Amino acid sequence: MRGAGMTVFLLIWSVVHLFLPTYLTILIYLMDATQIRALIAGYLNSDNQAKQRLGRCFAVELGLEAGCLGPDGGVDGSGYNENQQKIYFQCKLRGKPLPQSDADEFYQKITETEADIGIILAGVGYKRTFIPRRSQYPKIDRAIVHYLTLEDILTESDSFKSALKDLPRLSDLSEIIDFSENPKNQNLSI
Fold first, then answer.
1. Over the stretch 116-140, which tens digit does the pLDDT of each residue have?
2. Strand order from edge to edge, sheet including 77-80
């Protein structure tokens, strides 16, 4: 009986050691997800002036010309990528999904600026009427449009990776968003 007990103990010990690294990896991943949610909540709970400054910082980091302070007419950034494609960038860091009215503003600005690429960065996402609203703006059929959230950037989601093809400097945004990784950015003011 004593030998059987030792065998069971060794079997359990082997299984624990086999799966312990996986378990720790899962715990680390969960901590990262919690930290990401906390970071996003902090940005979304900032005042509008801080959100506007952040949008301008994003534009500059993307190599775009930042929109003006105060009412910016819906332009947080504009410029050209390495392939000389015209880019229009809008940042709306709200705690709710962006509604159809924001879609109309975004698509209208892509039309007005004749942008080849439109990038919108939302705080938490988009209402289900947002993206289909594009069909009401036939002049932007040729434009490439990327719909991103703060979480997309922090987790480097598939949407983020797709947008990287058109604007490689998007990879730099996570350094601005995550101040814990780059403390010198805490004093950015644009």
1. 999 999 999 999 999 999 999 998 8
2. 65-66, 77-80, 86-92, 117-122, 144-149
